[in-house]
Design goal:
Radius of gyration: 21 Å
Helix content: 55-70%
CATH class of the largest domain: Mainly Alpha
Order of helices and strands: HHHHHHHHHH
CATH topology of the largest domain: Tetracycline Repressor, domain 2
Number of domains: 2
CATH architecture of the largest domain: Orthogonal Bundle
Number of strands: 0
Largest sheet: none
Length: 221
């Protein structure tokens, strides 16, 4: 019996989401620059012409992959935030943990490495990523921090620095997964990403200081 083919059975049509999934798989496996459009079409089981009906260039295909994953998740987070009115710290921890665990455990966690690897050769992708992912995500988290400050739940801080302090370790976690982790160099401290993310957010929200005894006693009354 011949081994099963890794290429999906060719057919006339494919949903755009299937083309995007195939593209992301190959971008992760081979890198963006090394992946050819016909390989994406073959992985999705369609002709190259069918791929170009949806995505006229490989750059547009990568933009669509980013829209389909990270941008969609940011939009869902913004929608949920507009409907929540609980304690800001708890909401920040819940949203960030849920979002980043979802990203880390999905193929979209590789997008950060893809963009970093390819941005110098494809500056158009870097510009798109800046305006469509970084800036909306920054506004979302920054707005939540500002809400906490306005309500007296957080002390006044520099919003931009606070956002970077929250986000950049999460990005590094995804980069580790697709670099050192992909080569078999496991880090025991990063073996449980959900726990790492929760601990990171706890550190951001509560710091390293031992709570003041008087303040602790008052909070327990």
């Amino acid at each position: 019996m011949s081994p099963p083919s890794t290429t999906r059975q060719r057919r006339k049509d494919a949903r755009p989401s299937e083309l995007l999934d195939a593209a992301l798989e190959l971008f992760v496996e081979k890198g963006f620059a090394a992946t050819r459009s016909e390989e994406v079409a073959a992985r999705a089981g369609v002709s190259k012409g069918t791929l170009y009906l949806y995505f006229p260039s490989k750059e547009e295909l990568l933009k669509a992959v980013i829209r389909h994953t990270l941008m969609a998740d940011i939009a869902r987070g913004a929608e949920r935030l507009s409907q929540e009115d609980g304690p800001t710290g708890a909401l920040l921890a819940e949203l960030m943990t849920e979002w980043w665990v979802t990203v880390y455990e999905s193929p979209s966690s590789a997008i950060f490495k893809l963009v970093i690897n390819e941005v110098r050769n494809f500056p158009e992708i870097g510009d798109f990523y800046l305006h469509e992912v970084i800036e909306p995500g920054h506004r979302l988290i920054g707005g939540l921090i500002q809400r906490g400050i306005d309500r007296g739940e957080f002390r006044p801080v520099d919003i931009d620095s606070a956002v970077h302090s929250i986000v950049l370790p999460m990005v590094m976690l995804c980069l580790h997964k697709h670099s050192m982790g992909a080569c078999g160099f496991a880090d025991a401290h990063l073996a449980q990403p959900a726990e790492f993310i929760r601990q990171h957010l706890d550190l951001i929200l509560n710091g390293l200081r031992v709570p003041d005894a008087k303040q602790t006693s008052r909070s327990l009354e």
